[in-house]
């Protein structure tokens, strides 16, 4: 909402005093009321050095066609009175004798241009004649502004136009304050905060017979749609442009002047916050209006000349023949639009159902100043004043006559609530020690009347223009706003608990650090996928889809971290980072029959340019860092992974994730070169593991013996199973088993390979004798041969 | 005899001093002090001397032996250190020639900021609460005093998911549903912050992403006032930024708080920066969380984690933080 200081002042007798000279301080006061000032513009002060000049002579420029030489009289302002001053000018719309604005040497234009004496194709220009747009006024750039009336030559332009300096505040009005989408609403709040009187003077509208109710009628068919509806009949309108002062206010407020009637209508809306609409009365048979919900399939051509297909959720205003002539609360219809030939109008001010207007304007993609206000809620008892103000201005500016009486109909109007306010509750929430008188003193100036009071409590009548207020907390906010939030002071509450992270939160940090220590950087891919992404990654394509995606490429939620990290690797490869190593700890979303889909947290790690062995290495490194004792991998085909280079990761007998290499076909689909190692693990089991710290095992003080054993083992036996057999058979003696060599040759045959292990034997309580080592060796060999049909080499 | 001893000792000492290698020194040691050396020979000869001479000769033998031993030890030290110096010189490395390939990953700046924020609030006695990304319409809106049709719903640009009844399930638009889940889960007093990922139907640009991160704070206790709200954010700001700023609390509007406010910081250039939206928890929200607004009161606040990360690390375009470019990630 853009609001002018001069306009607000009309409702504050005596004005705002010294504050008017300090726009920034006034802006701060507004901001502290919750009416956040986003910009302050001082108007009219930017015309220093711009004066009224009289055109004495027009001459062609000897060297240029598009420039003419203009001799002006500056009345002594920039050259001796009566003597010609030469100006070069690119416009040709003025005639000898015209009065035009001249920016004299040294003047600074609103856009920052400083006027200097300069030569144009060999002719001196001693200033600049100004167009409206160069003066920061409106959009008419057709030529030099030719001044109407008889301003004095040499007079400053602002004085000649009767423009006083003004201040424009650009205010960001929050959704709960429809009342502040008006000049009076902002003025009321500001005056109250400053302790100044705010006065809405009664409006006298001279009117004559016949009564409007004999010329027009209204029927509210759907009560929910329309709370109140009012209209007046204005005749004998002399159509034309609205006066400059009104145009200036409209332009400053962001509205384009159209014609006097439309301008008055907009002016009333800006001033009072009540949108209103004018019908050409001659185009509304019998002045009869019907208000109802639209029927599916009905059409209406709106003021913007677009034919709108209506739905049963839209509200319409119809003529007596039940044909829609306006889209309720959003935009009027083209059929009854006023134009230059209009002489009588039916002016309507209604209060529409907020929800209906919101839905209607959203559905039709049509937001207007009116719909914005109706959505948020306008004052149901403000329509009389709005109608009267329209009539008053129509009489004053268009010489109109007004029929007596108002056509009024009540629909589903809800009275504003009465609210019990406990002084103790006010002081409790605001940390204040206000008295009841102070509370009343803050509330009454903004229209919250006291209906009754005891020594501790009030009953307050919420004003009809404040739909945001209905409970005690709302009233407390009003008191807080006007008392000042800063007066509540500051203190820090002392929780009785200790602050700490949960086991999951601690686990996430450890897990992240484990991957970082392994050289992986953290990526944050978006969780949205294109419809084919899951299938392209070799995964089940049934992810949860979005009902209203912005783009199809982001319309499915991921069920795996794989697609996102592959995209990230591809992105890096396309930027000449061939071997990125990335991990992500994030949610995946799985369909479910429960109230909400299942969300699981996984850690995915992808490394470009490495194979499955490096992925297994990463897995065990992370396992070591997190003390995941008992990690196991089981070779297995896994969707999305290389069919012969993938394994399921198990931990304590349960699946924990997958390890291996990404399927080359998937890599092709994602345009990734080289191999990609992949590990994806579920967070939850790790959280659990990290909650039980490992218990110490005593370290032997006695010497150890190393033993190398190589077996011929069938390919189908996992090398890790042999490790487990050795550990189990040598329980108490075998401290560690390490696979140090694997080889295959023709002698062994293609179905087996040689696996060589280095074992360290050590007892906790003694030095092992040679005999013990020898007998242990026999037992270990026998165990492996028996368990895995292996033979010792 | 003593004269002979002295000259032999002097000869050996001179030889030791002249020795060029440790081997040479070892030979000399064997020759002079070994079984066939002059010291051994002199000791043998001592028995043949008259008893009155034995004492003097014994002393001379010991003196000669000691002087040779000392000379050898001294020379040995000198030669050893020269030899070590030679070896060390042979091992010389130019450390500036070492290829540098650090193999350490980097945490994302959003996570780093997130964890820092958690730490600050843990230090202030808060716990960290969490909730699902996919939420019910009720938790995200209704329970937060944003009933169906409320104009505020428009402002959230909600992404709905196809699950259950149409319009019943969505990607949370803010972390505020965690307030509701916490209240339903836990009796007051409540002191939590909820950092988390949130979603809006927004086209990515330099200041918007469809996915971003917020931190929500909720305090519910007896006699919690507007002063506790401002004081808590003050304390947080001071801890997080490492210094305090002039600040102001001004009225604002959120459907889930009443009164609502905005906490602004004054920057060095005198302008105000919005730090956190906040307010006293709306009685309807307390009731939705099963808490009696007459017994308990509370405040809530929230701000963007990504924006703090952007400020801290000087990132200009929000999209850079989500491109997963290693050249970006490895800077932090």
How is this fold's topology laid out?
The complex is a heterodimer of chains A (793) and B (332).
Chain A: E1 2-4, H1 5-9, H2 23-31, E2 36-43, E3 50-60, E4 68-73, E5 85-89, E6 99-103, E7 118-120, E8 123-125, E9 128-129, H3 157-160, E10 166-172, H4 183-194, H5 212-215, E11 217-220, E12 226-235, H6 244-252, H7 260-272, E13 277-280, E14 288-293, E15 299-301, E16 307-309, E17 315-319, E18 324-327, E19 331-332, E20 345-352, H8 354-363, H9 369-376, H10 383-398, E21 401-402, E22 407-410, E23 418-422, H11 423-430, H12 436-443, E24 449-453, E25 457-461, H13 472-483, H14 503-517, E26 521-522, E27 528-529, H15 533-536, E28 556-557, H16 562-574, E29 581-590, E30 598-608, H17 612-625, E31 631-635, E32 641-651, E33 654-662, H18 664-669, E34 676-682, H19 683-691, E35 705-714, H20 719-729, E36 734-743, E37 752-761, H21 770-788, E38 791-792
Parallel strand pairs in A: 11-14, 26-29
Antiparallel strand pairs in A: 1-10, 2-10, 3-4, 3-6, 4-5, 6-9, 7-8, 12-20, 12-21, 12-22, 13-20, 14-17, 15-16, 17-18, 18-19, 23-25, 24-25, 27-28, 29-30, 30-34, 31-32, 32-33, 33-34, 35-37, 35-38, 36-37
Chain B: H1 2-18, H2 22-33, H3 38-46, H4 51-90, H5 109-123, E1 127-128, E2 134-136, H6 137-140, H7 151-154, E3 159-160, E4 169-171, H8 177-185, E5 190-199, E6 211-221, H9 226-241, E7 247-252, E8 257-266, E9 272-281, H10 283-288, E10 297-304, H11 305-313, H12 326-329
Parallel strand pairs in B: 1-5
Antiparallel strand pairs in B: 2-4, 3-4, 5-6, 6-10, 7-8, 8-9, 9-10
Helix pairs in contact in B: 1-2, 1-4, 2-4, 3-4, 5-11
